[in-house]
């Protein structure tokens, strides 16, 4: 039987790499898609992954990406997001529009294509990487609030619509900074930043849930947070 | 002293008319803006209103609208929304994009311009007309969920940012159908649809709140709903 | 026609006094009930109110209170709450139990009696004074979280059950400290505490809402809060 | 090294049995506590469990239970709940009080004792079995709403307080009926009721989360629900 396929959109940062490695070890064939694929060579080699360039906010490119993927697509994960910080009075409307396109419209485009494949095949899991900005609108962060709220609304609507068609949809609120080589946590505050492998484990837990007990939302947050 | 000005964007339906009449009677000079201004002649006459054509999802047109308004702008209300219903697998991406622009991006554009004026003048109220689709993602309604969630995230962010600058921002969840000549309620179910005058009263209540006790969100819903 | 009656339970602090005065001026006959009635003499005189002693967490005393009230009971407001602060490991179980009784069980007892009268008469408004502790569980505040969450759950259930019987129920999140003679706000932070008269106005706005557009929840918060 | 201990309070139904078996297989020594221990003999034999009688709403009995447990207590799960259905006007106040004691006050008592042990030992996981009644107040269900909302408020407060002390707390919304011998699902609706083993797996996933990415809340729900 063909290996199940997991597509990770917005690959590149630490979370995507952890997801790729964990899903590879769990038996998935990995497909990585990103606007900029140059940085993915090493990860692709590690995980025997195919790599595609794709601007997730372009309907044509997203459609093209999905038409290229072969084999049984069982997992699709959407990671990209964009933010424009600053007082609302000073934000550049064009930049705001672009950011919403990346965070929310791209989620829709990828989610739609994933739904088409998975509804037809009668199974699959679609996961959106969210943030606390999707449950709480912070000051000076109107753009990110719009994008992440929209993404959460999309995921909720898709859950209610697609769960009865045996397609599992969940939105994961990654609430905090992700630990990386570039962004290390203070030595005296161990585990105060999210370990990308730990986040990836929760994604895999969701993928493996039995359909009689599916979650449509999850939040992960470092223990030190009083949130 | 100059009359305070209330701008109603997306004028045309029953709620906008009720808002215009109530705010006029409360002492505001009314400005109506809509993509299609032809239907506004009668309302404009009734409320001594100025009328402007404006596509609220166009940065240029929104900017132009605000530069035209004279006098102390104290109230801005954003009503437009768009929805595209259907299974997510069948939605037209371009129509989805347009709908998000109307519901969410237009809210941002108008909210931003309103914030600029009101922060500079040190007072004012900005109200967004929402829907239950902004708190719950319904099946077959991914587009409206995205737009209304985004709008609510925007309003929350603006509340937290602008309240300390003495600008009041609130999101109103109008949860149900609005009674109109075209859309009458069943005779045996009195008040089972929202009376637009009743909704407008809650908007005015919000406008009149003392700043020591501001609400940033409100929900209005017919008594017969078990919701 | 007999004057409509408004019952305020847990009278005594600044909010209750503001409510009594505002509802009196709006044409209600006022009934005040509190565990300790000694401090109510002045307010009762100001508002021509009847005063009753009542422990709101006693089923017998609450039942007795309602059997005593004459005339058309149109408004019932529940104010009492109790909190026990401290690390959860150190809380006294008996004190926790008592506090839940005051905040939540008393809300039920008074709400139930109010519902009996109002369902029978076919109209009325029941308002519960809540707090942000009912939407967010803060550290070192397990007791208040339990009581206020329970009260909000009660109010939601009652809204869904009683609205279709023409009885309006709402939970008001009074999110912040209330200004009083004993608790004054900093001189350089005007209106940074909730003015009790301003809160009371929102209660009256809720009471006056048309049933085609009822709110079941409201939050009021000082403008300076970034919350 | 001594086996880690998992205490399951309110043992007896299908979920408790699944939890006991899964945690036993995961290497925990199992302690079962319930008001009525007679029905636990078979499960205790299967899982090498100790069994204690305990009324979870009694401070003395809960304190006694924890003083009896030996070994490193690493997991505590609270399952009991009680509901009294019916129109709010007809509920028996004494029955309502008892039900809140079982659902909410018992959660506090057990949670407090667990916190004392785990804070002292510097690790552990406390899980509360919730229901959708804790996020939405349904009509004719005021009692259950109060109990489950209170329990969720408790869990949130404990999460914020105890996570920084390395004690993980989570509230699990088990949203739907649990499949059992007594309560079978329709043959034409496979997996339309929650499989208790599937729920238990999510509990174990939570227990195993890395502390840099803890969840404080989870919802599980059958795929067929449009919720």
What does this structure look like?
4 copies of one chain form a homotetramer. Chain A is an alpha/beta fold and 227 residues long. Helix content of chain A is 40%, strand content 18%. In chain A, strands 3-2-1-4-5-6-7 form a 7-stranded parallel sheet, with helices on both faces. The longest helix of chain A is centred in the middle third of the chain and has 29 residues, at 93-121.
Principal-axis shape of chain A equals globular
Please list the strands of the largest sheet of chain A in the order they lie side by side.
3-2-1-4-5-6-7
**Please, what is the average pLDDT of chain A?**
96
> Which structural class do the helices and strands of chain A define?
alpha/beta
Could you give the distance between the termini of chain A? 46 Å
- The helix/strand series of chain A, from N terminus to C terminus, equals EHEHEHEHEHEHE
Total beta strands of chain A: 7
Q: What can be said about this structure in brief?
A:
Chain A has 227 residues and is of the alpha/beta class. The first copy, chain A, has 6 helices and 7 strands.
């Amino acid at each position: 039987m063909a290996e199940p396929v997991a597509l990770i959109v917005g690959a590149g940062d630490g979370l995507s790499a952890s997801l790729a490695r964990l899903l590879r070890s769990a038996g998935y064939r990995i497909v990585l898609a990103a606007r900029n694929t140059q940085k993915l060579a090493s990860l692709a080699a590690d995980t025997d992954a195919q790599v595609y360039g794709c601007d997730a906010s372009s309907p044509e490119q997203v459609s093209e990406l999905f038409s290229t993927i072969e084999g049984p697509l069982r997992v699709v994960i959407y990671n990209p997001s964009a933010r424009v910080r600053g007082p609302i009075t000073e934000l550049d409307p064009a930049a705001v529009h672009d950011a919403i396109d990346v965070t929310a419209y791209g989620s829709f485009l990828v989610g739609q294509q994933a739904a088409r494949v998975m509804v037809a095949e009668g199974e699959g899991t679609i996961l959106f990487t969210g943030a606390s900005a999707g449950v709480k609108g912070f000051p000076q962060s109107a753009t990110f609030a719009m994008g992440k709220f929209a993404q959460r609304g999309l995921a909720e609507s898709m859950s209610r619509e697609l769960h009865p068609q045996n397609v599992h949809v969940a939105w994961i609120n990654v609430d905090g900074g992700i630990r990386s080589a570039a962004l290390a946590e203070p030595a005296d505050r161990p585990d105060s930043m999210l370990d990308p492998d730990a986040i990836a484990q929760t994604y895999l837990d969701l993928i493996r849930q039995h359909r009689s007990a599916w979650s449509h939302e999850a939040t992960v947050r470092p223990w030190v947070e009083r949130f």
